[in-house]
């Protein structure tokens, strides 16, 4: 199933998406019609907490009441929100070697440009890539990001005033279920509720500056609207293997990257298991994969302009569209 959080007639709802026909099915309304409990559909978090019983109920309601036209709404007339508007926790990884190596070169080029201008930037971008630091093969690397700055598809994100260099990042993300600590890798698949697309918007100039402090991204990654999720969550039975899906980045309709989600250094199961060592992982957390190689401007030396529309597409999931607009001074 594809599961969305959306707003219609002044209320937030949870629905099952029929992407082929661009419509969404109101699960709570269907439950009411069937005389079933609508509690699992009060929010996406409620559905995650309801686990397989909630998903089975949703599938049953669709099978029984899909013919009811009043339970469907066109995608174009609803407001798609982030599928999980307020994750219980949000972590973002560094799982792609190409991105790690190319972003290191891109960061060095940005610093070179501050002293030597465009010529220094171009020269730095032409240098061979460095080796992948061994730590990235030894254990999953991630940071905890701001779960309260999440927005959904077709959002206009205000460019933070402290930044002049805005960037996009295409990632897959997993949403967890079944609260537990000390999850084994072999069991971690049972803790995956579904997958979505993550646009990890980044204020690159601020990020490059603050990370010289050797701690991690702060305002470079944390501003209103910086964590874009959507357009919906897709359950694992519709995805199959998450690695190897076609992935495309478009900016104002121009293709900037066409690749796949293959070659994660660690699969999501290993990332979840590593994070769960003597730490409870809650149902409703989000884990980002890290940026797929070539899928951000830092890697290719092309950043965003005010008014740009970014479309991140992942096969079997959908298209996540975001517009960035510079704030007035």
Structural class: alpha+beta
How would you state the average pLDDT, rounded? 96
Indicate the radius of gyration in whole angstroms.
20 Å
What shape does the CA trace take? globular
Largest sheet data = 12 strands, mixed
Number of E strands: 21
CATH topology of the largest domain: Fumarylacetoacetate hydrolase, domain 2
Stretches with pLDDT under 50, minimum 5 residues: none
Listing every helix as H and every strand as E from the N terminus to the C terminus, the arrangement reads: EEEHHEEEHHEEEEEEEEHEHEEHEEHEE
What is the level 1 CATH name of the largest domain? Alpha Beta
Work out the helicity level: 25-40%
Notable characteristics:
Fumarylacetoacetate hydrolase, domain 2; 329 residues; single chain; alpha+beta
Describe this structure in words.
This protein has 329 residues and is an alpha+beta fold. It has 2 domains: 2-80, no CATH class; 89-326, Fumarylacetoacetase-like, C-terminal domain (Fumarylacetoacetate hydrolase, domain 2, Alpha-Beta Complex). The chain contains 8 helices and 21 strands. It has helices at residues 27-34, 44-65, 97-125, 135-138, 204-210, 236-239, 268-275, 297-300, and strands at residues 2-8, 11-18, 23-26, 72-74, 79-80, 89-93, 142-144, 150-151, 155-159, 166-167, 170-176, 180-181, 192-200, 202-203, 227-234, 246-251, 254-260, 280-281, 285-288, 309-314, 318-326. The strands form 4 sheets. Strands 1, 2, 3, 4, 5, 6, 7, 8, 11, 13, 15 and 19 form a 12-stranded mixed beta sheet that branches. Strand 2 and strand 3 form a beta hairpin. The longest helix is centred in the middle third of the chain and has 29 residues, at 97-125. The chain is globular. It starts with a strand and ends with a strand. The model has no long low-confidence stretch (mean pLDDT 96).
